[in-house]
Predict the structure.
Amino acid sequence: MEALRRNALRFALLLLAGLFLVVMPDFSRADAQTGPLPLPTSTPEEGQVTPDPGPSPTPTPWRPPPPEGEKGYRDAWPDPPGYPFVGVKRYAVLLCRFGDDPSTPHDRDWYRQWLSEGPMSMRTYWNEVSYGRLDLSAENVFGWFDLPSPRSAYLLEDGRTDGPRLQNDCASVADQEVFFPAYDGVIMWANGQLSHRGHGGLMVLGLDGQWKTYQRVLMSEQRDPQGVLAHEIGHGFMNGAHSSSGPCCDGDDPFDLMGSIGPTCSMSGQDCVAVHPTVSRKMQAGMLALDQVRTTEPGTTHTYTLSSSSLQSAGSDVVALRVPIRGSPYRYFVIEVRRKVGSDASLWSEGVVIHRIDDWAQTTYLQHAGEDGFTVDDAVWRDGETWTHGSSGTSLRVDRELESGEVVITVTTGGAAVPPNDDRAEALEVQSFPFSFRTGTDAATVERIDPDLHHCTGDQGHHTSWFRVTPPADGKLLVRDAGSSYGLALGVFRLDEANGVLSYMGCTSSVPEKPEFSGPGVYEVLAGQPYLIDVAATWPGGGVLDVSIDFEAGLGPEYVPVTVDLALRKHLIARGTVSAGSQNCFNAAQVWIEKRTPSGWSRFARADFGPDGRFRLPIADLPGRYRAKIDRYVETDYVCRGARSAIVRHRH
């Protein structure tokens, strides 16, 4: 037995050694002076940052569509870099010059100064704004490398930079000196102007035997790159669009690195000094612990003391409030205090700052009191001032500002109004037509028993509201989005009350950004038969629901009759033609034979019209009530587009 244990131990040690050899990266091409260094394995030296990730959320990374046909790329994107974005993150810096421009604007030390060594370096900046949780290491600068093409080859027809081609070529020419898998990100610096001052995001490279997703920055040649460089690095791990004062003005928020970068930035990008990112972006990156941002409860009023998120010492204090809008988990306000210290010293004003966040729309809007335009003073609240957001019932009062820089505020959070028809069992009965209904659905839920909405959502949808209709006569039910603030899926179901079973009839969807896709859903309904309408959000979030339901008795002029002959007991034979104008259309249709059941009309047979307008289908259980419905037309037969369907009933 002892021998078996010794053999098992030897086997385990050999297995571990083999795994170690497999996963060890190959640093054989690392240059002693400027080449990549192995990933740090020892304790930090004096002056280095000791990472303290702490508990933090894991955001869903933005996944841009991969470019096609470019060397070094592949179609399927591998997993993105690890989140949260804290600890030591190593960047390789590649200096690439265009094929028709041999100039070298600066030596390598100039770039190291902005990246790792100077007081305005990226290492210093990100160490401050992350409260010491991020050590951005970018001291390894390579190049200059000569690109294979002139500058004009890296411009698209509309004048924008062809980023995928430029970054792929730059990485390829540097591959002989750089072992890319040793790095988390790549900063590529051109020796001339790109279409923008910089570009940031993610890229996938398949170099050195490994496919890997990297943080990616493309930089134009510029005099003072600090602000732009910090902004583009932020695009690699901070989701969402530029923050702004509203939908009109992309990127004009002076209180966010991912807005206007900072109030000192000019259109030329010179003298552009980066301010802090917002607290919400720091949370997203994992630079704050969860208990440093308090979430308020709907329908409550409380007083809080907030430290300034601008202070380096705020790394363990409560620095912000997260205030849900009408109880929504996806839409909320973030309240923080900004002071003119450190990287925020260039702010034009200081005090309480409020941003409205929409996680699904990926928007960040700076709240301001100005009605005729945005000014910085309109967006800062100080001692004794109040702010109210009427539609959500949220309000704030700045009680006092303390000498320590902390601020005492009182916040009232609007209650979460759950719609009365949130559940199927509580479906709102529609008793008259036309019917309209408008309410907030941020707090609406989805039940486990809610049905799928098929092609409209592919699942149950989100934030559902239910309606019940019992038509007074045979006719058509019209269901439509009347102007909701979010995309809807409106599903209609026949209800079998005896068994509680829903039979799916169809659904229609709407997209508020594209009105041409919105339109009424029309459904044939029977007198006395109950129907349920399930109105769901196509994406999480909710908002303002505005729905209209109407009813029209009779089939209407678009229905064309057919005749039914029941002369044969074992076959149901329909004779007739479907006409539009003077043209016959029976070759352009399919016919469904339906039988009346206690729960409604049930389809059980289908046939195509023959050239003489006849079809024949065997029916095993002939006695009953039947109808033949023509419901599909060949799209290329323009003459027949006016005909929609044909219904006839016969009782044997």
About this structure: The chain has a mean pLDDT of 74. Helices lie at 2-23, 108-117, 122-129, 163-174, 226-235, 279-285.
